[in-house]
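Hey L., structure's done. Input below.
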Amino acid sequence: MKLLGIEWFNNVGIARCEGNLPGDVRYYIKAVAGHDEQADTNDVMQFGSKFPKDAGDALFGVTE
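Output:
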C-alpha cells in the first residue's frame, strides 16, 4: 500500500492510500499517540478503520 497523503486533526489521522491496483484509492482513519509522525502514519495505514471514499475525496480536495 502506498501513502498518497495524510491529514491530521489533533491525534486523529486520515490517510489516503493507493491499494494494490493502480487507481484503487482507499481512506483509513485512526486515533494515534502523537509522539512520532512516521510511526503514527504507519499505524493509521495498517490498523485504521475504513473511511468513506466520498468523504475522503472531499477532505483531500479530490475531483474526478
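Helices lie at 37-47, 53-60. Residues 6 and 15 are 4 Å apart (CA to CA).

-- N.
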